[in-house]
């Protein structure tokens, strides 16, 4: 694992060349928040004489399009960034994610979950209407009800054979128990929030989804597999993913994958105080380029 100095900044090691990655989803056009992340990855890779990879996180085959992918290339080239080729596309590696999922299934750490979003929402509303707060994850979403963890194999098979749609969820309690007390569920953080060794708390997320009938992997599973497959040593991404790192550290431990160093950077906020989204036209890189701004202007706008 790369070393870090007292102020939390990263320094290179002689063990291997540091590997960074910028991993956008081609389901919309890049905005200033993406520019900050891409530029930070490039700057840190250059400072440590490291490598910069580009990955397309396109597991959503409905929303991700070749047109958006091409616009990402154009925006990054405009920012004077370069990256190693070939670009890794998640849509070309579904077999890798399935292999990792099958390893967890074989250890009885995954179960089929049949409740729809509407059914979960109704349960949450009923509970809260009776003054019983429903537990929520760090993003504010309600945790999945635990009922289906205990369904018999026969009942699960009956529902699947009848055509009931389902997702595959990680049994969080079993997964944490299998890691055991001797495993270090923590990560090294050098970012804009807490720094140092951060204890992971995957239980806060409940039974996360690893597979859906309409998506052959989940973000949590695919990003964990991808970072290991690409030899990523430094993950530089927004603070909105800080708490999700707990899930990734759990999956890395279960799958025997080496953890990278994490650097979660500040978020850029819009006029309403929310983080920028791909629907924010005023912050879109292609729109700013059309207005005559330069890559130097973008660096100034994102505080670099």
Which features characterize this protein?
single chain; 304 residues; alpha/beta; 3-stranded parallel sheet; 3-stranded antiparallel sheet; 10 strands; 14% strand; disordered N terminus
Can you describe this structure?
There is one protein chain. By secondary structure, the chain is an alpha/beta fold. It is built from 10 helices and 10 strands. The strands form 4 sheets. It has a 3-stranded parallel beta sheet, with helices on one face. Helix 7 packs across helix 8. The longest helix is centred in the N-terminal third of the chain and has 16 residues. The protein is globular. The N terminus is likely disordered.
Itemize the secondary structure elements and their pairings:
Elements: E1 19-22, H1 32-47, E2 51-56, H2 66-78, E3 88-89, H3 94-106, E4 110-113, H4 117-129, H5 153-161, E5 167-170, H6 172-179, E6 186-189, E7 196-199, E8 209-212, H7 219-229, E9 234-238, H8 245-255, E10 261-265, H9 285-290, H10 295-301
Parallel strand pairs: 1-2, 2-3, 9-10
Antiparallel strand pairs: 4-5, 5-8, 6-7
Strand order of the largest sheet: 1-2-3
| Topology as a string of helices (H) and strands (E) | EHEHEHEHHEHEEEHEHEHH
First and last CA, distance: 27 Å
Determine the structural class based on helices, strands and strand pairing.
alpha/beta
In DSSP terms (H or I, runs of 4 or more residues), the helix count works out at: 10
Principal-axis shape? globular
Unreliable spans are: 1-14
Largest sheet: 3 strands, parallel
Strand content: 5-15%
Radius of gyration: 20 Å
Total DSSP E strands: 10
Q: Helicity, in percent?
A: 25-40%
**What number is the mean pLDDT?**
91
